[in-house]
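Board notes (copied after class):
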Amino acid sequence: MEGTEIEGKFGEAVERSSTGDEARGVPRRRLAWLVLVVALLIIGTFLLSPPWTVLGKAKLIGYAICHQIPERSFHIAGQQLPLCARCTGIYMGALAGFVLMRLWGRQRAAAMPPAAVTLTFVGFIALMGVDGINSYLTFFPGVPHLYEPQNWLRLTTGTLNGLALSAIVYPVLNYSLWRDAIQTPAVRGFKELALMVAAGGIIVALTMLELPLLLYPLAILSTLGVLLMLGSLNTMIVLVVARREGVALAWREVALPATVGLALAFAEIGGMDTLRVIITRAAGLPF
């Protein structure tokens, strides 16, 4: 009789606990839906607001993160690309790096490249830094600089930098997303590094050709690179803030933080565009 009473009380406790978990789950689901709706509204507002053209929208995205100085940008069919030569390289290089690592089957690779490869990537970043500082010095008449800047150099060093950034961000993103992330390098050696550099060479060559038929592909791909990098960084921040890093097992579990990360990217772009307009008008800057 006594055992039966104990079993009955235990069953009631389990039922209350289960009911409590379900009760807590309902507000969480509602909050998740609310966050998703708000994120989609932000994305939709940006996409459905002027400018209405593809190039106009791409230039609006570029305006948030790039100086867009005409002399330091490539022009195709009379149109300036949305990003300057250096930024075009950075974001198309980053996009190419992500695509290559996906094609290599490194969907959940969460380890940095081998030390020697990582050091090479750091060299790429430093190379762009040197070229960027040298280029910046030319803004000031009479200030000595190492060499005359060229757009092809800006594009090349930017592309190498973008490849390096992708090799760093990609595994960190996987580590933040997946419970079953694999501790294998996203870039395994110099052979794959060489393939990335070759892809970067193709980006540089196609951009420098300035063929009219490449205007829209280059404009779209470079701005997709911007959204990819901003969205990836934002997604990692969202996961940390929500204490959900390293828990996803399927892509459907990634959909919400990734959508929020992309929405934050659009919000940041809109905010930076607005701030830049205010600052440039107040200071009387030409760009």
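Comment from the instructor: The beta strands are 75-76, 79-80, 109-111, 182-185. The chain has one domain: 35-283.
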